[in-house]
Write a structure and sequence with these properties.
single chain, alpha/beta, two-stranded antiparallel ribbon, 10 strands
Length: 315
């Protein structure tokens, strides 16, 4: 036993030291990623706290006040149009219990006049525009603005149409594939591998496992973006549906495991951008940047622009 430990302990010690050194110096093994854009200001659903979410009015307002990236979700209507909507079923957004895939474009109901902000419980948004927007119209209106597109359904036709629009408007380098589902992400990348993409939920768990076992510095990463909840918003500005996530101890554990400055710094050094969401108060924006986020996603683009402006003036 003692002879076994004689060889094991130096090996473990050497591995630990090498892992720690490469965590701090990833350029030794990995070429730094160079994405076509770098953003600190991302508008969630176009800034759903200041205008009705995912409408053209919301996107226009967000860009006017200084957002550097728009975040949105896509679904497809019965007659094959790619529209922007977070939900597949429109009950929450319109009050009508219909699925997007069951209606044609002209049959889509209008958004409610007053819509609760999902990540800011008890707060509502209004706006003059209550129509669902087409992805094509957003691309046409904002040809140079980076856009994060989350695909929520494993629908080959939808994915192919999104990719075709991205190519049509020549924006592959500034449009990001996003999905929490690894199967959907695989389908997206199979259709268009030229677009940068984010970590899925499963890949995020693998990332944490690699980090805590010391293997991360040795492993190549294809993703260009890590997008994750800022845990401190749970049960304060955002009330989750899951009873597990309403447990304070669970959220504390998640925060301890995921909000690691050394992990984020390693990813930044490898050219991977970290976006934390959804930050709708100054204290949360500050916390996100403090832990190492390269960008913050918010429902209140004016709030985030004001925060960034104030802090840049103090530097």
């Amino acid at each position: 036993m003692s002879s076994f430990l004689y060889y094991l302990l130096p090996a473990v010690g050497g591995y630990t030291l090498m892992s720690f050194y490469l965590l701090k110096n990833p350029h030794i093994l990995h070429k730094k990623k160079k994405t076509a854009f770098y953003c600190t200001h991302i508008s969630h659903r176009g800034g759903s706290g200041e205008r009705i979410e995912s409408t053209m009015e919301a996107f226009e307002h967000a860009v006017e006040v200084g957002t550097e990236m728009l975040e949105l979700d896509c679904h497809m209507t019965c007659d094959g149009h790619v529209i922007i909507s977070h939900d597949y079923n429109l009950l929450r957004q319109t009050g009508q219990d219909v699925n997007i895939s069951d209606v044609n474009l002209e049959e889509l109901p209008s958004y409610k006049e007053r819509l609760e902000v999902t990540f800011y419980t008890g707060h509502f948004s209004t706006g003059l525009d209550r129509r669902f927007a087409l992805l094509e119209d957003v691309f046409r209106m904002f040809p140079k603005v980076p856009i994060n597109i989350e695909v929520k359904e494993e629908n080959k036709e939808l994915i192919e149409k999104v990719s075709a629009l991205v190519k049509k408007f020549n924006r592959e380098s500034i449009t990001v594939w996003a999905s929490v589902d690894s199967r959907i992400m695989k389908a997206c990348r199979k259709v268009n591998s030229s677009m940068p993409y984010m970590f899925t939920e499963m890949r995020g768990l693998q990332l944490l496992l690699l980090y805590y076992t010391g293997l991360l510095p040795f492993i190549p990463l294809g993703e260009s973006f890590l997008q994750f909840y800022l845990p401190r918003i749970f049960n304060r500005t955002f009330i989750p549906d899951s009873p597990i996530l309403r447990n304070r101890m669970v959220i504390t554990l998640i925060e301890k495991l995921t909000m690691r400055r050394s992990l984020f710094q390693h990813l930044r050094d490898r050219g991977i951008q970290i976006h934390l969401f959804v930050c709708n108060e100054d204290q949360d924006i500050e916390a996100a940047f403090a832990v190492g986020a390269t960008g913050v996603m918010t429902d209140y683009p004016t709030l985030l622009s004001d925060y960034i402006r104030r802090h840049r003036s103090h530097e």
